[in-house]
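Tip: read the tokens left to right.
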């Protein structure tokens, strides 16, 4: 935006607005989105995850992603452990949510910063049962 003397002014609000908007969008979808750091510590989860796991987001943040599935260590077929920068990770793993028995296809999108894995974005899509 240009001010009165023709200089460009950078606004900070759109950055905050974008984060809030993305959270709103991700909370509105039925698929489960879980974001965790490279140590598997959950830093964000959408409302679909809260509903599927039967736990509040506040109770889940700070826990390990594998604990959501009743494990005490990372999953044997963890996609984050085998992901290298530059190699596509399109693999899908089957996960079952304890307590509800909901089966999901799980894929992980890695986020690298300076060639180091920083975040994993897990996308869990519940499998629709055909009668």
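Filled-in amino acids:
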């Amino acid at each position: 935006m240009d001010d009165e003397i023709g200089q460009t002014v950078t606004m900070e609000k759109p950055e905050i607005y974008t984060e809030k908007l993305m959270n709103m969008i991700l909370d509105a979808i039925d698929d489960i989105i879980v974001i965790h750091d490279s140590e598997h510590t959950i830093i964000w989860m959408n409302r679909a995850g809260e509903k599927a796991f039967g736990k509040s987001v506040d109770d889940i943040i700070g826990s390990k992603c594998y604990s959501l599935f009743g494990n005490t260590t990372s999953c044997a077929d963890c996609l984050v452990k085998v992901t290298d920068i530059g190699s596509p990770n399109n693999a899908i793993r089957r996960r079952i949510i304890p307590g509800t028995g909901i089966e999901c296809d799980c894929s992980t999108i890695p986020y690298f910063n300076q060639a180091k894995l920083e975040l994993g974005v897990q996308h869990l899509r519940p499998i629709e049962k055909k009668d």
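The CA atoms of residues 80 and 111 lie 10 Å apart. The two ends are 56 Å apart (CA to CA).
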